[in-house]
């Protein structure tokens, strides 16, 4: 039983109490992931998810028009939220945190539940947009923010926050995944930060 | 009639003269590309290529064991050869030439003849290796050579030829293709050189 299943069971095991808002929403999303893993996208139903979450279909339809939206939201919820990263004004540490967040996203996107849903009609491009909105674009904006603050403190060269500098980390992770395989070792992340990004942005 | 077809016809139109070595080989490879474009991979035959090249099947079988090897060689021959690039010891110009060679390779690989052959059994990974051997690895080695010579002249920082620096240009082209589409404008290449690679390698 994995963490999602445990969470779904725990949240579902309170039928006497009326759960509202965030608590119920989290129970439904956890149950959706559990159903996706146990029966697959095609056999997943709104009824099945409602039953697994210990609630009624109406509670689902109040929040989601149907299965594709529900599954999308459940997968989105399984991704890391870059806006929760603790950024420190230590440029090297912050860039490394942002790269780790991208790596975690790649790992999750290649995982079983994403693969189970991805092959369905229209879902692949939908997931690509979701990953973009949830992780890639926020990471890009946070990277720019880290660089801008480094420039303002005089630690980074003027221009370090411009052009395509903020895409280099993501590009290097993508390059590793495409040429060397999907598992990206920590030493690779550190080498990208120390041999590529820091020399590119540091004022000397 | 495109350039390959014209070349194949011209070379084939000399039945009286016995063509040998390189000339015959080029005629056969040009005829292979022409056949690939006109009938597709599946219907392409050694006989058909021999007829289009104005030679006999034996001339083909002396050089290639069968269709997959012949088609691979024809596609390989259609790619640019990075070792023919004129390198100048002007780091910016040389890096830009190498990136243009990668872009041309991406354009050709996405073109009709590659697509026609790619979907056949086992051909996709074979083509990926071919593009790697013919273009990507030589570009990587030449990039390292350009960087090493720049370091030796004192124009580039020590370490500029190490780590993953030589992969950054290719990674940025790949990133553009995956996130913004396959047509890579000249301004993007120049921005990668001026905003990313040169600041990363230049001694300041």
Descriptive key words:
homodimer; 204 residues; mainly alpha; 10 helices; elongated
The overall strand count of chain A is 0
Structural class of chain A: mainly alpha
Radius of gyration of chain A: 20 Å
Overall pLDDT of chain A: 90
Largest interface: A-B, 25 and 25 residues
Q: What is the ordering of alpha helices and beta strands of chain A?
A: HHHHHHHHHH
Helix content of chain A: 55-70%
Write down the oligomeric state: homodimer
Tell me the number of helical segments of chain A per DSSP (H or I, 4 or more residues long): 10
**Uncertain residue segments of chain A:** none
User: End-to-end span of chain A in angstroms?
Assistant: 53 Å
Proportion of beta-strand residues of chain A: under 5%
Describe this structure in words.
2 copies of one chain form a homodimer. Chain A is an all-alpha fold and 204 residues long. Chain A has 10 helices and no strands. Chain A has helices at residues 3-12, 21-39, 46-52, 57-61, 67-78, 91-109, 112-118, 123-152, 168-179, 186-201. In chain A, helix 2 (21-39) packs across helix 5. The mean pLDDT of chain A is 90. The A-B interface holds A 157, 159-160, 162-165, 167-168, 170-172, 174-175, 178, 188, 191-192, 194-196, 199-201, 204 and B 157, 159-160, 162-165, 167-168, 170-172, 174-175, 178, 188, 191-192, 194-196, 199-201, 204.
In short:
With 204 residues, chain A is an all-alpha fold. Chain A contains 10 helices and no strands. Helix content of chain A is 67%, strand content 0%.
């Amino acid at each position: 039983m994995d963490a999602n299943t445990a969470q779904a069971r725990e949240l579902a095991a309170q039928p006497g109490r009326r759960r509202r808002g965030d608590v119920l929403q989290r129970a439904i999303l956890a149950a959706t992931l559990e159903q996706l893993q146990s029966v697959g996208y095609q056999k997943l139903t709104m009824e099945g998810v409602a039953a697994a979450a210990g609630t009624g279909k109406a509670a689902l339809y109040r929040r989601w028009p149907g299965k594709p939206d529900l599954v999308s939201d459940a997968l989105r919820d399984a991704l890391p939220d870059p806006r929760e990263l603790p950024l420190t004004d230590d440029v090297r540490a912050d860039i490394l945190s942002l790269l780790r967040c991208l790596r975690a996203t790649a790992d999750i996107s290649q995982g079983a539940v994403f693969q189970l849903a991805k092959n369905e009609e229209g879902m692949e491009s939908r997931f690509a947009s979701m990953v973009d909105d949830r992780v890639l674009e926020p990471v890009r904006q946070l990277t720019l923010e880290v660089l801008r603050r480094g420039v303002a403190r005089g630690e980074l060269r003027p221009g370090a926050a411009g052009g395509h500098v903020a895409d280099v980390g993501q590009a290097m992770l993508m390059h590793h995944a495409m040429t060397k395989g999907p598992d990206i070792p920590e030493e690779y992340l550190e080498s990208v930060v120390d041999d590529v990004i820091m020399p590119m942005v540091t004022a000397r």
